[in-house]
């Protein structure tokens, strides 16, 4: 915390500003304490956070900024003003971003691949990811005049409505992510399927590369605003997916579209929809049902499983609850090898998913205050929830990583040591100080001066 007494503080104290990556350049033209040369600090637009050791997850998909109003007593009417009892806020959102942030808060080493525009909303997203310890790899070759995807979210009594402009979200693809790049990850999650046209078109080939890289995969499509529910999704995408994570409405809509296109009888029930979808997905179907919890069907054996939601007297905001479910479920699923995963493991993962979603709906905004593992334990105890599973992930510990493009390294994710500087703190990594001291010692020896290193 304090430089040695025989050196002024200037050469060693470097402020690491939250939300920015810093590059430090040092010129040893003479001992810095005699020449007074300061360290040159350059702020750059991209930042990266060094993920932790353990299982690694890549999340690809939509990034939005949610302009959140509510909860409202009623929806606005044309020509009338509607009072919002809470401040209207711009918050980081998008299913993929929410899921990545949730995984980061639960201690999972996570990288998000998506795109943002060159605007102030992009800074909202970047700050969120840094706060959650998530590395951000930005898609290349994006037109510079497109804005970050933006969604106006109107929250009402037990439901919400959306107005979206997709902006840059429609313009990027997954083609630049090679099978070699994917080998560093254990699991790949796809979020916001209907929000990212370019990603959607490149997804089948991308999932094939995930298979080549031996990554397990999961997908949450979210709502299809066109109400078309592409029947080819069930036939072409689900056979390449290990975990399918729809809500009950999405499951029924896809089953209806698929059966209609193929002349298959369908009675419109959720149970029948799960049977139809589980016959297509490579692995397991996990369906969220809001206050009714989760139901699913284990792919290996066809065994059903069900988990009740935590009973809550009041709900503050349901935005992001499904993404919190995704994060909770995947944080546990990835701890198992594909060969050893069981229906009991799926049940335990669904229990954590319900806990995480129930914790989320007591907060305002999509995963603005995501629970850590310890917070979820306390939340479960406070609500009388008995859960027998073991948390297999560590607490998040974001640390600075200096990469040219703001992405995690292509070959590995080095762990964050406790001595690595906290973003927003005044520490310099101790390894850097040791290296600088060594160089200064050599320099002093060369000059014949006393060795003060």
Keywords:
nine-stranded mixed sheet, alpha/beta, globular, 17% strand, 15 strands, four-stranded mixed sheet, disordered N terminus, 453 residues, disordered C terminus
Write up this protein.
By secondary structure, this protein is an alpha/beta fold. The protein is built from twelve helices and 15 strands. The chain has a nine-stranded mixed sheet, sandwiched between helices. It has a four-stranded mixed sheet with strand order 5-4-8-9. A hairpin with a 4-residue loop joins strand 8 and strand 9 (160-165).
Sheet with most strands? 9 strands, mixed
Low-confidence stretches: 1-52, 391-437, 442-447, 449-453
Give the class from helix and strand content and strand pairing: alpha/beta
> What general form does the structure show?
globular
- First-last Cα distance: 17 Å
Average pLDDT confidence is 76
Q: How many strand segments?
A: 15
Strand content: 15-25%
Helix content: 25-40%
Give the strand order of the largest sheet, numbering strands 1, 2, ... along the chain: 7-6-3-10-11-12-13-14-15
What is the helix tally?
12
* Quaternary structure: single chain
N-to-C SSE string, H for helix and E for strand: EHEEEEHEHEEEHEHEHEHHEEEHHHH
Cα-atom radius of gyration: 24 Å
